[in-house]
Design a protein that fits this description.
The protein is mainly beta and 145 residues long. It contains 1 helix and 10 strands.
Length: 145
């Protein structure tokens, strides 16, 4: 069964994936054939099984399939959630894109100096990839001036 990664929590050692049949499914790092740190929202994975547990659905035998390539866009930061580590960018075509600090190109840990220096109105260059519930930003950097 193919699913799309919707959240990744490397500190907690889990992620959530979504597919049309099962909806949201919990995946623990022990069920993955790859490191969670190498995974990002929008990636496509394959699950060999989905088990119904008392806490909800759990994916097992998870393999990395592909990282969808997105289009490179530019846009303006419209809101910032510092404690949550994310912001929203309004692309030049008007679409809002969710951008998490771990997807900034200079981010090797859970926080990014570039992210914390952001201000509303800053211009970013973002690779827009499909996500749930809407577009996500990957390979985020400041736009060339």
């Amino acid at each position: 069964m193919t699913a799309t990664v919707s959240t990744v929590n490397t500190t907690g050692g889990y992620m959530h994936v979504v597919n049309e049949t099962h909806g949201r499914v919990f995946v623990h790092v022990s069920d993955c054939s790859f490191l969670l740190a190498d995974c990002q929202m929008g990636d496509v994975v394959d699950l060999t099984a989905v088990v119904d547990t008392p806490k909800g659905l759990r994916g097992q035998g998870v393999f990395f399939v592909e990282r969808p390539s997105g289009e490179r866009i530019e846009g303006i930061v419209t809101s910032i959630n510092g404690p949550g580590g994310y912001c929203f960018v309004r692309a030049d075509d008007g679409v809002s894109v969710f951008c998490h600090c771990r997807n900034f190109e200079d981010c090797k840990i859970s926080t990014s100096a570039t992210f914390h220096a952001l201000r509303i109105g800053d211009r970013l260059s973002v690779e827009r990839v499909p996500g749930v519930p809407g577009p996500k930003g990957a390979h985020i950097r400041r736009a060339s001036v």
